[in-house]
Automatic annotation (TrEMBL):
One Pfam family matching this protein: DUF4222
Superkingdom as given in the UniProt entry: Bacteria
Designated name of the protein: DUF4222 domain-containing protein
Length: 59
């Protein structure tokens, strides 16, 4: 099975007003890959969860 991650560079804000940088999207697994400030590793969330917890912002 091959995994394709669509590269992105978008910013979103969570309900705590923390801005995260979305770096990729996996269309097959419907997962969002993002970075939180101060975190060493990337975070991953299912698309349905990400949409309910984050709002897109212009930066």
């Amino acid at each position: 099975m091959h995994e394709y991650i669509q590269p992105l560079n978008r910013y979103y804000k969570d309900h705590h007003a923390v801005v995260v940088n979305v770096t990729g999207y996996d269309p097959v697994g419907q997962r969002v890959i993002y970075r939180r400030p101060g975190y060493e590793w990337e975070c991953v969330a299912p698309l349905i969860v990400f949409r309910s917890r984050f709002k897109r912002i212009d930066k």
